Amino acid sequence: DEQQTTCTGTGSCHVECDRTAICPDEDEVCVTIWRKKDDNVTFDTVCHNPAHKLYGLMLEDYNSSKCEMKEKKGMG
After folding, report:
1. In this predicted model, what pLDDT tens digit does every residue of 27-65 receive, in sequence order?
2. What InterPro entries does the entry give (predicted)?
């Protein structure tokens, strides 16, 4: 589900670790991403297989216990 956020969409944002999804495939992980379009910043939580690209990018640190979103350039 896409939701509004107070994250500015630059640098990094700490997120609530209570954002979860029950992923149907054991190879998938729960990923929270932010998207910024003009002044509108939203975040979305999805299940994704980290062996594949997500919006053109490979996931980094998906096993980290730290709940932090980092800005990535060039997302499609």
Report:
1. 998 887 777 777 777 777 888 999 999 888 888 878 777
2. Snake_toxin-like_sf (IPR045860), Transforming_GF_b_rcpt_2_ecto (IPR015013)
pTM of the predicted protein model: 0.62
Domain definitions of the chain by residue range: 2-66
Task: Name the DSSP letter for residue 54.
Answer: B
Task: Give the Cα-Cα-Cα angle 61, 40, 47 (nearest 5 degrees).
Answer: 35
Q: Which of 43, 46, 53 is nearest to 25 (CA)?
A: 46
Identify the CATH homologous superfamily for domain 2-66: CD59 (2.10.60.10)
Question: 50-71: b or e for each residue (b if 16 or more CB lie within 10 Å)?
Answer: beeebeeeebeeeeeeeeebee
